[in-house]
Amino acid sequence: MRGTFDISCLKQPDGRTAVGRQVVSAPWHLSKPYWDDAVLLVQAVNATAGIFSGDTLDFRIHVESGASVLLTSPSASKIYTMPQGEAALNQTITVQRDGWLEWMPELFIPQRGSRYRQRTEVKVEPGGSLFMVETLAPGRVAHGESFAFDRVEWMTRIHHGERLVLAERYPLTPADASLSDLNHQPPWYYAGAVLIWDAPLPWRSWQECLSNGQHADLHMGATQVAESVYLFRMLARGSAILKDGLRLIREFGAQHIPPLSRSARKL
Questions:
Q1: CA-CA distance, 89 to 115, in Å (whole number)?
Q2: In angstroms, rounded to a whole number, what is the distance separating the alpha carbons of residues 219 and 209?
Q3: CA–CA separation, 83 and 200 (whole Å)
Q4: How far is residue 117 from each of residues 125, 140, 169, 178, measured CA to CA in Å?
Q5: Which one, 8, 25, 57, 254, has the greatest CB density within 10 A?
Q6: In this structure, how many other beta carbons lie within 10 angstroms of the beta carbon of residue 84?
Q7: Tens-of-pLDDT digits for all 267 residues of the chain?
């Protein structure tokens, strides 16, 4: 399938955020947005069982000045077994000055023999804010899968203003050593997050909070990579523990970043 999810969110005269322009085609579906007096909760739904060989999907969201959006997905992203071919997702995210976007999708699960490419381009204007999460599960762990996909490739480029602040490329395959730190018994789950926030933050206290929240089944780290740009990384022995780690990040951050106090699971 060749599906498009392309929306623009704007601030209305009454202060609420609403979806303006929208172009959505199968397999994507836009659930009815929900305004909770602080952010607009938007759910991007894959109406099929998941992503299959040959699928090429485009995902674009534009947050205009003054708009506040929490974008999520209601179920895990499953990348199915592929006898041949691959699937691809191209993501474009833009946030204007005084806009806020939190992108908190559910778990990413590449199954045995799957091949997947993801390209993400992010542009955040000075004064705009972003919290974006990516995850990686080992596969269908209950079926005995542990990083049995053929290949997963992520490429991410993030601009803050005119400056390129982050460029990452992760080609992951069991055929080389790229998964050696994750593929243990039991296997590790991974999460990474990027925060762009121009106002001052108690960064050392946040790092100490994450350090104190670690244990044998949860490892977390955080660093500031540029002015107003922060990175989080996490390894966990299970999806529930991974969600606990992400919850810890958001709960501490919510003390200083009000939009992070909103629930991603309102609907």
A1: 12
A2: 12
A3: 50
A4: 27, 19, 11, 16
A5: 57
A6: 8
A7: 899 999 999 999 999 999 999 999 999 999 989 999 999 999 999 988 899 999 999 999 999 999 999 999 988 999 999 999 999 999 999 999 999 999 999 999 999 999 999 999 999 999 999 999 999 999 998 888 999 999 999 999 999 999 999 999 999 999 898 998 888 888 999 999 999 999 999 999 999 999 999 999 999 999 999 999 999 999 999 999 999 999 999 999 999 999 999 887 654
Unique residue bearing structure tokens 């053929």 = 150
- Identify the DSSP state of 245: H
What is the amino acid identity at position 159?
H
Q: Do 87 and 51 touch, CB atoms closer than 8 A?
A: yes
Structure tokens at 54: 């040959």
For 55, list phi and psi in degrees, rounded to 5.
Answer: -70, 135
Check whether the bond before 200 is cis (ω within 30° of 0).
no
Q: In angstroms, rounded to a whole number, what is the distance separating the alpha carbons of residues 16 and 231?
A: 30
Which amino acid type is present at position 4? T
DSSP class per residue in 176-226: SGGGTTT--SSPPEEEEEEEE--S---HHHHHHHHHHT-BTTEEEEEEEEE
Q: Residue 141 gets which letter from DSSP? A: G
The DSSP symbol for 55 reads -
Please give the model's pTM, rounded to 2 decimal places.
Answer: 0.95
The Cα 21–Cα 251 span in angstroms is 32
How far apart CA 9 and CA 18 sit, in angstroms, is 6
Separation CA 84–CA 54 (nearest Å): 9
Tokens 């590449």 locate to: 110
